[in-house]
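[User]
Um, tokens okay?
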Amino acid sequence: MLSIKPDELRSLSERIFAAAGTPAEVGDYMAQSLVTANLMGHDSHGVIRIPRYIGQIRDGSLKPAATPSVVKETETTALVDGNYTFGQVAARFAADVAIAKAKRYHTAAVGLVNQNHTGRIGEFAEMMGRAGLFGMFITAGSRQWQGVAPHGGRKRVFGTNPFAFAVPAGERPMVVIDWATSVLAEGKLQVARAKKATLPPGVILDGEGKPSTDVEDFYTNGGVMLPFAGYKGYSLALLGEILVAPFLASDVYGPGPRAYGSFVVAVNVEAFRPVAEFTPQLDALLDEIKAVPPAQGFDEVLIPGEPEQRTMAQRKQGGIPMPEETWQKLLETAKELGIDPAPRGD
């Protein structure tokens, strides 16, 4: 396992995006977004994705210089066309639209179609939380990638269809809840594959529908990922699929009825009570939860978002751990674009 300095990783990422035809401002943002995911411990949504993004730029499915646009809107709703730019860029645009409308009209629902992979969607829920809003961000749609079976099945039907929520707190950091509806995000399977590691039980089935811990059963042997908590995760995955595909009319705005997209909701706390009254109440609730004695095998009770905060503090100081295979693929991508990477840090 290597250890890469965050600034080194960000610089290399910026150079790769620039060489692939990405405008400087967009490339800088993409590098920052991906490296932040690594810093927070979500390596599955960090720079491991860059080779795939560059491949999509080459095949034309990702348009690095495109800009999102509003297709139609009301005072409290909007439909955003991502125009196949980076998913993160489109998602940030959609979140900004939701924030502006919720600030003015207290609530907003925004749909996003024609997007690409969005990375860590908690980033966009956090944007709404920092604005003093309750934020919800759901991404789904299986046109680009199918890997998850419905509960009781063994055929790929869904993407990982993640949900993210953020709620502003007062003295405590905001509460950020961000999870895939599969047992693990697919990117975590990529990380396990790069590490040559086995998977925990209950994550995948092999091509014959039997439980497996060999990640190659998923990638090369026709296996499937499983929804978390059985029928509960499956139900949430289905809800995301309904909201993003039929509900947002992705069959009209994109190529096919299962196009990739997102559903965004922002609600202004001020619609119900002053933020100055809400945040102390939430802090008190979080204090109560933190005071709960830990169960056997645990050191403490954590609030959603705390693990990421702690991991970021550690990795900013000690570097980002990275499998050799992931780093080499990043270097290969750079060299293919004519970039001579700087020597690796310790």
